[in-house]
Amino acid sequence: MVCIWAGDGIVVKGQAYGISSIRVDGNDALAIYNAVRNARQIAINEQRPILIEAMTYRVSHHSTSDDSTKYRSTDEIEHWKTMHSPVTRFLKWLERKGWWSDSEEAKLHVEAKKEVKQAIDEAEREEMPPLGDMFTDVYDELPSNLMEQEISLRETIQRHPNDFPKNMPI
Amino acid sequence: MASIFQGIGAATSISSSASFDTMKLQFSSPRSISGKKANCVVMRSGGAKMDSGSSRNGGRADQLVTNAVAAKADTPAASTASKPGHELLLFEALREGLEEEMERDARVCVMGEDVGHYGGSYKVTRGLAEKYGDLRVLDTPIAENSFTGMGIGAAMTGLRPIIEGMNMGFLLLAFNQISNNCGMLHYTSGGQFKIPVVIRGPGGVGRQLGAEHSQRLESYFQSIPGIQMVACSTPYNAKGLMKAAIRSDNPVILFEHVLLYNLKERIPDEEYVLNLEEAEMVRPGEHVTILTYSRMRYHVMQAAKTLVNKGYDPEVIDIRSLKPFDLYTIGNSIKKTHRVLIVEECMRTGGIGASLTAAITENFHDYLDAPIMCLSSQDVPTPYAGTLEEWTVVQPPQIVAAVEQLCR
């Protein structure tokens, strides 16, 4: 893997700002928990910031329009996905402690899938955002120019209902 | 910079071809369009003066051809005649223009995110790093302010960089560089430094890219002194404007549109460079002048089909040059039709349409039979919801309705 920094990552930059900094293995759930718990205590008790640099790896593509296999090998992706997956590591630690088992894991998967599917179904039944949503929250209240533009848009849609998406709440 | 001058009585050979340059000259009046521009000659073909016997045969390699696409292929004199040209997509046309200029001048270089090894996020620079090397087609870190500044510095010391913003919206992070260094250094250094950069990238509303990736930066940049702005809309003008922008000694911002990269068109085999300050006559007409640019050109042409069926004859002009406006072409059209509709993707407040409305009112007020209509997007961040996003962009039916209202 190529390091993109000429310097030593982000953690050294905290020092330049006078902020106590720590570098943690971002794929180690327990290490992150300990680091954040301690950092939080210091922040609250001593009223000063802490910088935590969590080192990890982006397994997925950058975005839906990116194909990362164009600039890295699938072996590399697989390696990080399996050997270093924080979920797998934590899972194995729980199993070694006797606090989790394969059957419980399987059951959790089924339940989680069901929950997600239900949420998706419910979301798809939801109505699309109404036209007014285009103009709310631009400001705290609609100023005159936006009021004009909303009226104008509503008139346009009324005049040409066939040329705009149907079944949309207006 | 090849400035725009107003044509006065340049003797014209009124050919039977559908060449639009001759049509322009037919309608030019000896009266000056604005008080400031007077008594000069039109510079059309990128520097070559238009004289009466201007032939338009495409034989010589450096013959500069304008409007070859606007003219239909079957009219003899206007088109580049013998060779049919080659077909390609808009991003390929940009690449062709870029490559030709890199071949021609060793100082031309490219820099931006993923332009080198990856070939460009929209494939505009594909293959160039392999051909010209990693330094000449430079992959930069995700630091727009830094690499724009680097490009400007490179331009000041002799190179001719093309700076690519992966999306125009990202260039907001380089606004200081573009405004203060790019736009002003030539002036503040008393002419000692020139900044021949081309800043280019896709902008405009795409398909659910979200508010921050759907911006129309032409409205934010238009006030910056010292820069020129052009917007391409077809493979033909994309290549021509790219070449012109690279050859210009001034900083030029070339606006592309995310949704237009896969447009296909047949363009000439011969080399051609377009004029940066020139507008393109897309469809001549009599009843109303419709001014537009970039993607909205296609919405306008779609509306034009409907309008023709309804008996209207709209004149459609792709203004192409966003700064400065080609008031010569626009003015001639207004003098003929007396009605103006501006169709843009910018927001209503402070967009290109707003400036254009002001410019037209100032210069051609006496020729207008109706108030100028301007169709723009609302003053809202582009919604992510697909339906709301569709409502925020001007659609063909609105254009038809506006023309009907104008021509009442």
Task: Note down, in words, how this protein is organized.
The complex is a heterodimer of chains A (170) and B (408). With 170 residues, chain A is mainly alpha-helical. Chain A folds into 3 domains: 8-56; 72-126, no CATH class; 128-163. Chain A contains 6 helices and 2 strands; from the N terminus they run αβαβαααα. The longest helix of chain A is centred in the C-terminal third of the chain and has 24 residues, at 102-125. Chain A starts with 10 loop residues before the first helix and ends in an 11-residue tail after the last helix. Chain B is α/β, with parallel strands linked by helices and 408 residues long. In chain B, the strands form 4 sheets. In chain B, strands 5-4-6-7-9-8-14 form a 7-stranded mixed β-sheet, sandwiched between helices. A 5-stranded mixed β-sheet of chain B has the order 11-13-12-15-16, sandwiched between helices. In chain B, helix 4 (144-156) runs parallel beside helix 5, helix 9 (296-309) packs across helix 13 and helix 10 packs across helix 11. Chains A and B meet through helix 6 of A and helix 12 and helix 13 of B. Chain B: Pfam families: Transket_pyr, Transketolase_C.
What is the fold's blueprint, element by element?
The complex is a heterodimer of chains A (170) and B (408).
Chain A (H helix, E strand, L loop, with lengths): L10 H6 L3 E6 L3 H18 L3 E6 L18 H9 L3 H11 L5 H24 L18 H16 L11
Parallel strand pairs in A: 1-2
Chain B lengths: L19 H8 L15 E3 L2 E2 L36 E4 H15 L3 E5 L15 H5 L4 E3 L4 H13 L3 E5 L10 H9 L1 H4 L9 E6 L14 H4 L6 E4 L3 H13 L4 E6 L6 E4 L12 E4 L4 E5 L3 H14 L4 E5 L2 E3 L3 H11 L2 E8 L4 H13 L8 E5 L8 H7 L3 H11 L2
Parallel strand pairs in B: 4-5, 4-6, 6-7, 7-9, 8-9, 12-13, 12-15, 15-16
Antiparallel strand pairs in B: 1-2, 3-10, 8-14, 11-13
Helix pairs in contact in B: 2-8, 4-5, 9-13, 10-11
